[in-house]
């Protein structure tokens, strides 16, 4: 279920794929089209979320039970959806989130410890079934993505085959509902990725406009 009247766009993809870079470009492009844009991120789009983010990503946290981790991500998401995303969508803003439900599914699924359907149920419950109008997946070989980044946090320092499974997880999610996804080759130069992102968002906007004209 979407929370309209605003548009909700999520960016997903591995570390160093270019999410932050492209979100900034897209926000500018949308503003140029007259949209009021709210950019946010998971984990950590709220005060409570920032505290959860520190716990999750700080290397000093060390080992964490997978269920604890899943619940912390879900808690962050519940707060984020209730206090940032839904109010912004209700006010008519276009919301761009750096990561959303699919990151939980791809990362926790790649860990092969938790059942993906259970993680999905937990996420859907936490977000009260909020689904992005469009999810942009920046698809990249994790070796290239990780090489773009200088530092390494707790998740980034995991083995590269884990990141290969994460990458496959994102692509699998897109294949389940292709009309709600744009999978973009993020190894391309920044300007080309940018053009592909704008084309995908523009196509969605035009489709929406056509739908509302006929309804
Ligand atoms: N298409 C591109 N080609 C080459 N370098 C890029 C490209 N897009 C982004 N970069 C560079 O790669 C680095 C990582 O980009 P960015 O921070 O946008 O990725 P991210 O997906 O947000 O990473 P993180 O997972 O750490 O949040 C930055 O230094 C950025 O300038
Ligand atoms: Mg980023």
Structural features, described:
With 215 residues, this protein is of the alpha/beta class. Helices cover 56% and strands 13% of the residues. The chain has one domain: P-loop containing nucleotide triphosphate hydrolases (Rossmann fold), CATH 3.40.50.300. It has helices spanning 19-32, 47-57, 66-90, 101-110, 116-127, 142-148, 160-176, 190-214, and strands at residues 8-13, 37-41, 94-98, 134-139, 181-185. The chain is globular. Bound molecules: adenosine-5'-triphosphate and magnesium ion. Magnesium ion binds next to α1. Residues 13, 15-21, 148-149, 188-190, 193 line the site of adenosine-5'-triphosphate.
Topology diagram in text:
Blueprint: E1 8-13, H1 19-32, E2 37-41, H2 47-57, H3 66-90, E3 94-98, H4 101-110, H5 116-127, E4 134-139, H6 142-148, H7 160-176, E5 181-185, H8 190-214
Parallel strand pairs: 1-3, 1-4, 2-3, 4-5
Helix pairs in contact: 1-8, 2-3, 3-5, 4-5, 4-7
């Amino acid at each position: 279920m979407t929370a309209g009247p605003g548009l909700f766009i999520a960016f997903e993809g591995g570390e160093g794929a270019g999410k932050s870079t492209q979100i900034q470009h897209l926000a500018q492009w949308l503003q140029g089209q007259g949209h009021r844009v709210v950019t946010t991120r998971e984990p950590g789009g709220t005060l409570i979320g920032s505290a959860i983010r520190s716990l999750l990503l700080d290397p000093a946290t060390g080992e964490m039970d997978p269920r604890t981790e899943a619940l912390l991500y879900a808690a962050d998401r519940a707060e984020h959806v209730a206090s940032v995303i839904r109010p912004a969508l209700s006010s008519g803003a276009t919301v761009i989130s750096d990561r959303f439900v699919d990151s939980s599914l791809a990362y926790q699924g790649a860990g092969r410890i938790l059942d993906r359907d259970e993680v999905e149920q937990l996420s859907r419950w936490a977000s009260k079934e909020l689904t992005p109008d469009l999810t942009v997946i920046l698809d990249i070989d994790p070796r290239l993505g990780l090489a773009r980044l200088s530092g390494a946090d707790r998740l980034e320092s995991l083995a590269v085959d884990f990141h290969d499974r994460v990458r496959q997880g994102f692509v699998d999610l897109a294949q389940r509902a292709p009309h709600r996804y744009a999978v973009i080759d993020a190894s391309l130069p920044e300007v080309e990725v940018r053009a592909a992102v704008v084309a995908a968002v523009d196509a969605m906007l035009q489709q929406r406009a056509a739908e509302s004209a006929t309804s």
